[in-house]
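Request:
You are asked to prepare a plain-text protein record giving the amino acid sequence and the backbone structure tokens, at your earliest convenience.
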Amino acid sequence: MVLRHIDDAINSYYQQLTQTKNYRPDPAEADISIKSATTEIFDLTQLKLKKHDDEFSYMAISTTKYDKLNPEQRRLAERIYGQGTDFIDNMAMLATAQIAETKIYVLNPGYVKTEARSGYVGRASWLSSFDNLSSFDASDRNININDRLRGVRRGASVSEQVSATGGALQSAVSIIPPSMSLVDCYNLILSNPAEAVKALDNQKASALAGLLQTYLSSRVR
């Protein structure tokens, strides 16, 4: 529903969020989305939300004591961080990264009730950066932040991949598709020597030196 209207010439999803602060979808389209078999509906009043301000609140999840979540909280948590063993593994990953608590931000029930008088209300939602914390925002309108967009267009050339990642070789290398040949990999490395050096460590440098020695030995007659 959002992608269908993100480039509308008038009153697009982007324009609404950045100018009027809320997304007001077409009621008929919203009904279809809400009634979809893949859509889950949550009772905000059962999430034990902690107030951030008059507009939104958050549900805190301990990455080690998540068994204390009530059924509605756990269902929402697993909607964001994966179900079953995937959820457990993701919590363990966060805990290992010394992130003791992750948060899911949503609009306040009172705010939703007030805004819903004018029809459906929507916001942007995404996982935030993975650094010293991790959170999920379903209450945001700051869609200009680009650190949540990862990867490149499928089938993009090596030069396009480097450009899409701002020339950061380390980021580009992490998203090389399985179909990319070793020749493409070498071309990617050689296209940005400065970043290639920054991405090196002793182990990688030693391995590359070994490859070079093998190559030179094969060229000796």
